[in-house]
Amino acid sequence: MADSQSTLNSAAETDAVIDVRGVHYAVDGRPIFAGLDVRVPRGLITAVMGPSGTGKTTLLRLVTGQIYADRGQVAVFGREVADMGRAELYATRRRMGMLFQNGALLTDLDVFENVAFPVREHTNLPEPLIRTLVLTKLEAVGLRGAAQLMPAELSGGMARRVALARAIVMDPEVLIYDEPFVGLDPISLGVILRLIKQMNDALGITSVVVSHDVHEIATIADHSYLISDGRVVASGSPAELAASDSPTVRQFMTGGAEGPVRFHYPAADYATELLGAERR
Amino acid sequence: MRANRSLEIGTGLFVLLGVAALLFLTTQLPASGMKFGFGKPAGYEVTAEFDNIGDLKVGAPVKMAGVRIGEVTRIDFDTNSERAEVWMNIYKKFNQIPMDSFASIDTEGLLGGEYISISPGGLQTYLKNGSRIEETQSALVLENLINKFFANFSNKSGSGSQGGSKGPK
Amino acid sequence: MSDGSREGVLEGLRKTGVTALFFGRLLGACVPALGRPRLIIAQIYNAGARSLIIIMLSGLFTGMVLGLQGYDLLHRFGATSALGTAAALSLLKELGPVLTALLFAGRAGTALTSEIGLMRATDQLTAMEVMAVDPLRHVAAPRFLGGLIALPLLTAIFIVVGLFGAQLVGVQMMGVDRGIFWSQMQSAIALKDVTEGVVKSVAFGAVLSLIAVNEGYHADPTAEGVGRATTRTVVASSVMTLLLDYVLTAAFL
User: Fold this and answer.
1) What is the span of the domain harbouring residue C61?
2) What is the pairing mode between strands A206-211 and A45-49?
3) Which residue ranges of chain A lie beneath pLDDT 50?
4) Chain A residues within 8 A (CB-CB) of chain B?
5) B156 CB near a chain A CB, below 8 Å?
6) Does pTM surpass 0.80?
7) Would you say the ipTM is above 0.85?
8) Which of A261, B38, C17, C108 is most buried by its number of CB atoms within 10 A?
9) Edge-to-edge strand order for the sheet containing A45-49?
10) Which residue has the higher pLDDT, B134 or C102?
11) Which CATH architecture does the domain made up of A3-95+172-279 adopt?
12) What are the residue ranges spanned by the domains of chain A?
């Protein structure tokens, strides 16, 4: 990035790596976000939580510049994503790593080549150096032995660890995890949790974890946002959220079916519909 | 993807095959001077001169009593005699064709291709490599025949119906 | 009802626009993609080498049928010497390019669409985007170029194998003279006839690869969506092949 920009925004940058302010976004007229505010401070683990369908993945797409907000600002490293040209957007993306829910490994490449992929794409490093780099990252996620396997031969947890190795191979400043705990057995889950924490502590990578696994997240997050109905309904440290007396937070943290977040899809009154059923 | 030899060899083979096929189509098909050499039996070369070869082409068969005994290998124009010179490859096993045999250019059916028909003579010496067939008869050119027919017809010379049935020679 | 049909027209227009815009971006991505010949080679292998057997078999039998039918037809006019010419002209100008294109759509086109669609459905394309790798350049363009190169080569192979199939039946089985078969063919066929076949196959290669890549790239990211996109590839490819065939034939007359 140009120096002028970084000096211009240095104050904002040290403060928040990702800054989402008052974002409105709608798909086919259905609002996903209505005034969303999320700030991700440098060097910390920030959790974004919320029930399914609250647009957590949409938030990630906004941050990586795959889609643009209808209204409001999305700034990354102090620069407005919407103002970036293609080259700057791509340069910004290289400073970020993202871990997809299912790993999103390239199916026609083996584990080693998957991790090597960003390196080969963006650098002209000599082969021995690439090899060292890739094996180091694979070792970090405990899968150096699996280097020659194809993605189809990996379990869900292993695929996600390979994807993590790929996400960190270019030494990003920010790592974004999209639902990293979904569908994992307890052992794999523990491994991933430890890895996230480790990446954050050892490498100083700013982390954003999008998840609805409240209890897992609570063990590692420094700061949490709870999103519902297109806006942030609560934020704070895990302890603060756990102590909150807001009904929405309570419902989400304890998993109740009744509460501000409806378990039932909007419908006519149950009794009325049952009684009226004969007419159909 | 790296060092995937079988993939690269497969692709190379495919591209080579495709390019060869393309070359075959662009150079061999339209060029009338080309000779298909596959399965060509060994033989000896004989030449003959014709006043007019009509539509005869390289590759056309040489037949004797309707049996294929060889094929036309080259056609050229002899500036000295001002006649067409035709080279033929006669298969090795037909090695007892009399020197005084007679070569004519005939047509297979009404619309068919033309070929050289050899009628055997009576000599005990036989054609060999480099021999020349002296006795020849030109191609029957349909247009000439029709022209002649109409010319005779308009002259009301009675015998028009058979005029020119045996070429100009 | 008129409202529905209006919606349909607008949707059709939108799809055409999307495809055209995609084509423009794809062409733009082809230039840098040329700097990665390894990726294109892999796609020539996928689209071409892996279709070789089916193309050669189909070519052989098409040629053999031409030999039989052509002989039967020409025999009635006593013009069996034109068999070579007839077979070669039909193969060069029509059957070769069109049948190869249809087979290509079924074999390579569907494979392309489902592969790219699956990459879309499993977030592989998004992952590339986020890794600052343009999937258009890395995935779509090499596949488009691979198809564009492979189809004309396949067509040429189809035609040549077909010619030998026709000669197999016409000469070896029905007894047409081999010399006449080939010499008549050679003298009757002009370079223009060969050019027509080549131009057609290149055009089919471009259109079919575009359709396959486009459908895959824009497939709904679900298993069902990929399946539907694959079906659309076959339908659109077949219709476009025949339509374009008419246009090009008319242009060459």
Assistant:
1) 25-30+38-252
2) parallel
3) 1-13, 280
4) 108-109, 113
5) no
6) no
7) no
8) C108
9) A96-99, A174-178, A206-211, A45-49, A223-228, A231-236
10) C102
11) 3-Layer(aba) Sandwich (3.40)
12) 3-95+172-279
